[in-house]
Amino acid sequence: MPRCTGINHLAMATSDMDATVRFWRDLLGMRLVAGLGHPGYRHYFFEISAHDMIAFFEWPDVAPLPEKDHGVPVKGPYGFDHVSFEVASDDDLWEVKDRLEAAEMWVSEIIDHGFIHSVYTFDPNHIAIEFSAPVADVNVRERPAMHDSHPSEITLEGSEPQPGKWPPVTTPTPDTDKQIYPGEGRIFRKEDERRP
Predict the structure, then answer these.
(1) What is the 3-state secondary structure (H, E, C) of 130-184?
(2) Long-range contacts from 92-100, C-beta under 8 angstroms, 24+ separation
(3) What is the per-residue pLDDT across 122-167, written as a single tens digit (0 to 9) for each?
(4) Per-residue confidence at 195, pLDDT binned at 50, 70, 90?
(5) Confidence at 40, pLDDT banded by 50, 70, 90
(6) 61, 86, 92, 120: which one has the fewest Cβ atoms less than 10 Å from its Cβ?
(7) CB–CB of 116/106 below 8 Å?
(8) Which of 153, 171, 170 lies closest to 162, judged by CA?
(9) How high is the pLDDT of residue 147?
């Protein structure tokens, strides 16, 4: 089983990279750590933590999402509701709330979800975002807990990955066939090679 270490990046879209940079970097304090681009296209990455980033493509014809409250059911095709960023404590939630209110942006009250406390807001692209602080002594990663009154049969199998549910790999890629194809971001390595 591959071992994931976090979310390398979430990829979102905007038609206004300047407003996006102002919000994510300057208001929320996420460093702008990488940028690619040329006329009609940009791809910028903001650091969430040592392992996680959020990225934005800027395309000129993108329209902001229709504003939709977090977690409210919808009909029709839909694949994304909101993203939650973990902060260290409730004090950090209050700081986020105060910063958003000072910027005259809508932000919810702090909500107690049992294992996390959260505040909700929207970025300039109407992307629904949440900030969550863990609740002391309620660690669902260490002690998974399900409180679904009608769980599915598959859910009842437990929290751990279930072996034998997918076909096993019988023909792994041979080392001689393992190739990594060039992408636009190779410029970052070339830039590092030029540095003293």
Answers:
(1) EEEEECCCCCCCCCCCCCCCCCCCCHHHCCCCCCCCCCCCCCCCCHHHCCCCCCH
(2) 92/131, 92/133, 93/117, 93/118, 93/119, 93/131, 93/133, 96/28, 96/131, 99/27, 99/28, 100/27
(3) 999 999 999 999 999 999 989 988 888 888 898 889 888 888 889 9
(4) low
(5) confident
(6) 61
(7) no
(8) 153
(9) 86
Gap between the Cα atoms of 1 and 22, Å rounded: 39
Sign of the torsion angle spanned by Cα atoms 13, 42, 30, 182 = positive
Alpha-carbon distance values, 25 to 48, 144, 156 (Å)? 10, 34, 42
DSSP-derived secondary structure letter, 72: -
In the chain the domains, ranked by start, together with CATH numbers, are: 1-63 (3.10.180.10), 72-139 (3.10.180.10)
